[in-house]
Write the C-alpha cells for this entry.
Amino acid sequence: MSDSGRKPPEANPTATVPKVVVSRLSLYLRELQQLVRDGQETTNSTQLGELLGVTAAQVRKDLAYFGQFGYPGIGYRCQELIVEFKRILGTTQPWGVALIGIGNLGRALLRYRGFASQGFRIAAAFDVDVQVIGTTVEGIDVYAMDTLTDQVKKMEIKLAMIAVPAVAAQEVADRLVAAGIEGLLNFAPVTISLPDHVQTVGVDLAIELEQLSFAVVTHGRKT
Amino acid sequence: MSDSGRKPPEANPTATVPKVVVSRLSLYLRELQQLVRDGQETTNSTQLGELLGVTAAQVRKDLAYFGQFGYPGIGYRCQELIVEFKRILGTTQPWGVALIGIGNLGRALLRYRGFASQGFRIAAAFDVDVQVIGTTVEGIDVYAMDTLTDQVKKMEIKLAMIAVPAVAAQEVADRLVAAGIEGLLNFAPVTISLPDHVQTVGVDLAIELEQLSFAVVTHGRKT
DNA sequence: TAGATTGTTAATCGATTAACAATC
DNA sequence: TAGATTGTTAATCGATTAACAATC
C-alpha cells in the first residue's frame, strides 16, 4: 500500500518538456495537496483535469513526460504524486532564497507564509538602506549589499528574489550572478539580461492586471 | 508626423486572440515604454523581438491580430504603438480596483507604485479586522466587508485583488461576484470557482519559485 | 469476471517560422 | 531609385485531443 515498488518512475530524460507542462505540474501539485487536506487518498485524470480546467487526456499526457505514476482502473494515489512532483520540480529539499530589497514588497515577501510549505526559506535579506541594514525583519537578518557574495557562498544560496526599484534591478541581478546565484525571481517591471546559465522568472503585478483588463473588456468573446 | 491618419487600425474582431499573444502584448508595451524613456522614437519587429526573446516574424504576426500599425521601410512609432496597445488592453482609462485583505501582501499592494502608471488605481480596501477598518492606509480608506457591495457599486469598481488567506478566498470571491465585480486578480494559493462571465487571473508566488526551481535543477538541459 | 482507468498512438488543431510581394 | 521593413501567405513545428489496447 505504501511502497510496493511497482511502476518505474523513469521518464525519457532527453525529451524536452514544454514550459506550459511544467507550469501545469505546479498547479497539479497545488490541487493534490488540497485533495489530501480534504482527506482524499486517490484521484484520477478526469478529476485533476476538472480542477485545472483541462481535458483528462492532457493530464495523462502531461504526466507521461515524467514517468508512469498511475494504476489502471484505480487512478493515482495523491500522496505518491505529491512526492513525485516535488522531486521533479526540485523542491524535495528546501531551497535557501536570498531576498534583495526590503521595501514594501520585500517586507511582504519576508512575512509571506506560503513559501515554507512549498520548500522555500528566505535565508538572508539585503538592502542598501543603512536604516535597515543590521536589523532583523521577521527573524531574518538584513545585510548590506557589500556582503552579498560572502553570505550567498557561506549559506550556499542558489535562488534570489529581486524586489528593488526597476532602475536598480539590472545592477542587482549582475551582482547576484557574480555571487554565483543560479536562479532569479524578478519582481521589478523590467526585462533583465542574464547569461544563459542563470534562470529567470519574472512577476510583474501591473502586467497581471493588464491581462485581467483585457479579459474583462473582451468579455465573453473568449480569450 | 503626429496623426496623419494613414493606416486603418481595424483588426478582424471575430478572430480569437491566443492568450499567449495577449501576454506578449503587455511585454511589448513595457519595452516600448522603456524605449520612449530612453528617447527612442521608432522601433521595428527585429528590435522588439530581441527585447522579448522572440523572432521578428512572431512580433509582426502578434501585432497583425489587432491591426496594421507599422510603416514598411520604417518600422513602428513607439508612441503610436503604446497608445494602440493601451487601447487594446483596455487601460486607456484608469480602472478603479478594490483590494480585499489588508495583511502583509495587501499593504504591499497598497504601497506599490507600479500600478498607477499602467492605469490602475486602488480605489477602496476591505478587511474583516476591526483594528484596520475605518483607518486609512496610504491614503486609501479601509472598509468593513459588509460595505463591499455598496462601495463597489457607488465607486463603479469592476476589478478586485484578493489578498486574503487561502481558506477565505473562495468566500470573498463569491461576495465580490455578488457585488458585480467583473475581474479578479487572486493572490491566494487556491483555485477559485467562478461563473463564466467573471474573469480571473491567479498569481501564486510559491508556484513562481517552483518554476524557477525546476529551471535550475534541469539547468542547461533546456526548458 | 466486469468495470474503470491508465499510458500511448494517431489525428487534429493551433502557433511559430520562413519567405516574399507590397510599400514607404 | 535602392534599401529597409512591413503584413501576409504557405510550410513547419509542436501541443492538444480522441481513441483504444493494456492493465488492475
In short: The two ends of chain B are 44 Å apart (CA to CA).
